[in-house]
């Protein structure tokens, strides 16, 4: 987002706000705090005597015939507590030193008939609540408010006491207005506390704030995530990819995946063989970072200016027409077939069917990998070749040889030509219809077999540029994507093993 570290700012806010809230709540305003809670406010019934036996006689004032008629009475129980984190001393009450009263409980529309202290968390509190300490009751007749005055009681952290009062209505009807405690603390506050059941609104607000911060970070990261918009290594431009037809499907899919992240990146594909791709890179790639060649194996001699980069270990397989009926061959049998020493599949346990040997044309990286890893240098020159289509049309007796230029032609020829044998990149063959793969000496073309040196037919896929690529070029970004990004998943899905995932990446050489 234009280089502004919004994610860092959000993280700092997410940490700072809870800390500030804690300091504000418990160190500053909440460090010294008195709380009050109305635990009961109910009309007088017979149940009061059962809950507080012997209390009502204390509350009913003496006076004989002059005693007030106790009609429309209610009983209120108020808890006063030190809800802060420090002790509260007598000097902490914000009232004149000469005034012994520190708290006032107001009962709108009611007068106080009587009162008593019913519970002390510490017996020592009783010394501050005796008659003559400032405790008492009175009435503000002008505003019809009954008032209980409470002294400046010193309270340690967590201390509390309760006041039970019997009241008589003086105005109004229905539910009584709620009692209110009024007082001031120096450097603190007095506030109503709630029963600790459920979640407090402040905690809910803090949780909501943190959720909002997390959501904002998620949206920000989603916006910066390569999967949702422009990739972190997204470069616009056009890149032409040439070379290996065996590796073409994997490269095409990787380019499509890169294009999902980088809408301004354009790819063109002109694969026609490894050798032709290298030649074109050598001729047209100088000072042209928009051209990249893919090769099944190293470049060989004649291309001194081409810079190699290993991409993945690729496995190949022998393939046959389904009519051949042979599912495993030894290396020597493959060599005999491609030397023309086997002219009928009966000699290898198959049906009475002449052998049709299909090779890739010269310049094919797959053909070079086949020669280097399977046939070997001692193989005699290939017999004369003819047209694959001509062989299919004339069906000559004995062994016949033909060549095809690209992988798709190899797969189609093997599927259409009875008795044919060829080779292909394994993942292409596995997806093709009308061909069957052949194991080599009982071993299958997978990574573990190759790393264990039991399966011989494999090679390394290379990318070549003419000289070093500019770091900000699409070609350089795409290579980084292939070797270190989601592109590796694409290569793996096509049966290749990215070189960077090998136990020893330096061993990713043919």
Automatic annotation (TrEMBL):
Residues 229-483 form the PBP domain. Gene3D superfamilies: Periplasmic binding protein-like II (3.40.190.10). The chain crosses the membrane at residues 6-30, 203-220. Pfam families: PBP_like_2. InterPro entries: PBP_domain, Phosphate_ABC_transporter. Coiled coil: none annotated. This is Phosphate-binding protein. It comes from Nocardia terrae.
């Amino acid at each position: 987002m234009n280089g502004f570290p919004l994610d860092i700012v959000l993280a700092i806010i997410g940490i700072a706000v809870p800390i500030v809230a804690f300091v504000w709540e418990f160190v500053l305003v909440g460090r010294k705090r008195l709380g009050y809670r109305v635990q009961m406010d109910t009309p007088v019934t017979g149940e009061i005597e059962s809950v507080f036996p012997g209390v009502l006689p204390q509350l009913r004032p003496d006076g004989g015939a002059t005693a007030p008629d106790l009609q429309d009475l209610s009983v209120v129980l108020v808890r006063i507590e030190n809800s802060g984190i420090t002790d509260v001393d007598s000097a902490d009450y914000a009232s004149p030193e000469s005034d012994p009263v520190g708290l006032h409980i107001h009962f709108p529309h009611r007068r106080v008939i009587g009162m008593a202290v019913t519970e002390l968390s510490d017996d020592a509190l009783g010394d501050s609540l005796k008659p003559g300490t400032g405790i008492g009751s009175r009435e503000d007749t002008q505003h019809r408010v009954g008032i209980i005055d409470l002294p400046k009681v010193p309270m340690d952290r967590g201390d509390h006491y309760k006041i039970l009062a019997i009241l008589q209505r003086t105005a109004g009807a229905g539910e009584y207005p709620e009692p209110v405690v009024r007082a001031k603390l120096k450097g603190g506050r007095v506030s109503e506390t709630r029963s600790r059941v459920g979640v407090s609104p402040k905690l809910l607000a803090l949780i909501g704030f943190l959720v909002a911060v997390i959501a904002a970070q998620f949206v920000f990261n989603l916006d910066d995530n390569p999967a949702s918009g422009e990739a972190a290594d997204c470069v616009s431009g056009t890149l032409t990819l040439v070379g290996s037809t065996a590796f073409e499907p994997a490269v095409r899919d990787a380019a499509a995946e890169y294009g999902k992240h980088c809408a301004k990146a354009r790819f063109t594909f002109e694969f026609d063989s490894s050798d032709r791709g290298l030649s074109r890179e050598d001729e047209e790639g100088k000072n042209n970072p928009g051209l990249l060649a893919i090769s099944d194996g190293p470049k060989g001699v004649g291309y001194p200016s081409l810079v190699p980069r290993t991409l993945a270990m690729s496995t190949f397989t022998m393939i046959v027409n389904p009519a051949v009926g042979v599912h495993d061959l030894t290396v020597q049998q493959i060599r005999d077939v491609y030397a023309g020493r086997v002219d009928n599949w009966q000699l290898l346990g198959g049906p009475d069917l002449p052998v049709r040997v299909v090779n890739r044309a010269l310049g094919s990286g797959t053909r070079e990998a086949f020669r280097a890893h399977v046939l070997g240098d001692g193989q005699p020159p290939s017999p004369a070749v003819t047209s694959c289509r001509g062989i299919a049309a004339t069906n000559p007796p004995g062994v016949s040889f033909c060549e095809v230029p690209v992988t798709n032609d190899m797969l189609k020829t093997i599927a259409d030509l009875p008795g044919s044998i060829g080779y292909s990149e394994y993942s292409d063959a596995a997806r093709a219809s009308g061909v069957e793969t052949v194991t080599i000496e009982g071993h299958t073309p997978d990574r573990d077999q190759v790393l264990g040196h039991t399966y011989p037919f494999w090679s390394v896929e290379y990318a070549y540029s003419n000289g070093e690529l500019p770091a900000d070029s699409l070609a350089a970004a795409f290579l980084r994507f292939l070797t270190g990004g989601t592109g590796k998943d694409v290569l793996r899905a096509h049966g290749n093993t990215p070189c960077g995932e090998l136990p020893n990446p330096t061993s990713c050489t043919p």
